[in-house]
Design a protein that fits this description.
Blueprint (H helix, E strand, L loop, with lengths): L1 H4 L2 H14 L13 H18 L7 E7 L5 E6 L2 H19 L15 H13 L4 E6 L3 H4 L2 H9 L5 H12 L2 E3 L2 E3 L12 H18 L3 E5 L2 E6 L2 H17 L11 E3 L5 E2 L2 E5 L9 E5 L1 H14 L8 H18 L6 H23 L2 H10 L4 H8 L5 H5 L2 H4 L4 H6 L5 H7 L18
Parallel strand pairs: 1-4
Antiparallel strand pairs: 1-2, 3-7, 3-8, 4-5, 6-7, 9-10, 10-11
Length: 438
Amino acid sequence: MIEKVINRKNMLRAYRQVLLNKGSAGVDGMSVKELSAHLDKNRERIAHEVCTGKYLPSPILGVEIPKSNGKTRLLGIPTVTDRLLQQAVAQVITIKFEQEFKDHSYGFRPDRNAHQAVLQSQKYIHEGHQHIVDIDLKSFFDEVDHCVLLQLLYRKVKCPLTLRLIRKWLCAPILIKGRLTKRRKGVPQGSPLSPLLSNIMLHELDKELEKRKLRYVRYADDFSIYTKSNQTARKVGNQIFLFLQDKLKLPINRGKSGIRKPVQFGLLGYKFVPTYKKGDKGKYQLVASDKNWKNLKEKLKAATRKTSPMSFDERIQKLKEIQQGWINYFRMASLTGKLKELDSWVRNRLRYCIWTDWKKPERKRKNLIRLGVNPDQSYSWSRTRMGGWAVAQSPIMVTTITLKRLIKRGYQSMLDYYQNVSPSAIEPPYTRPVRTVV
């Protein structure tokens, strides 16, 4: 197998994927752009060390990133050389495991995505399985037992050199704030291998759930089980809790786990709310969670902050990236009402930015005249003592910096984009620069 790993065609494919993924430099400071020159000089040495079992991975760079709840998540960033080799190994061993993975495992797999997982969950709920066992694995990627994982790998990967490489990557120390720390468990988030290794580990859970003929949905370490009664849900929840604890040695976050009804349940950012149409009793529609609406508004607020050092065209482009990415993900949800309100708020913030950019009263007066306001009114508004946000929402700005003028500058409302995007086909993000001026 190690020969397949270092095969020139496989390595070239891995190199392209590492370039595509981009990512930060590891402990050696080498960027993705420098990888090509490094390989030109060291390809033969690296291949020889891998084939003879002498290759030693570099330590992992630990980076703490903030979470929305105020806590932090530790990401492990391998060096670009290690990322290349991990990608090459992943491409070879994925073929052996992918054919055995179950249909209701949707995370980090070809031709599968979060939308399919959410739709499958909605289907179970509509079929009457409305007592949901929601189990949260406590810091899954940090708690994976290396012995259990390596035993599962050995069933399919018989090559000792490949297994040695994987074991070395699993045990590589992590550099946190300048201090090396040994790792005796866990799979570092941020490596090309971690998604595959997580699926290999939790495939055992999938097999157990199917053996018990349970309805479930799993996306990486996020999984839920669907039953028809509270009693069945309790029984199943206890059995799966013991399986995870005893067989896979994975701890469960009791505070975040429990039995939910659909209105209390959320999956991958989506929530379920009852539909009140006649004949739709027991049916639920999809909506975006409050947390995701809040995150979207914070991003839009940052992009339209008057003090941000951006030109108007750059601001519009940034807005499009945020809006289209968010709507592409939540396109299956009912968003119309909230998007209409949010669009109005964003337009007012853009008007506020324009008013602030005009700065001096005389410039404000001249610009208002150019936009069709009579000279007397222009003079009065240019000298107003009203705050900028109040002016942005006033008739003088709403009737001059109109929606039509904003569209000429490249603005696109989220509601329009949402209504034009179909649930099955996503349009590419808008990237062409707009040069028209107000």
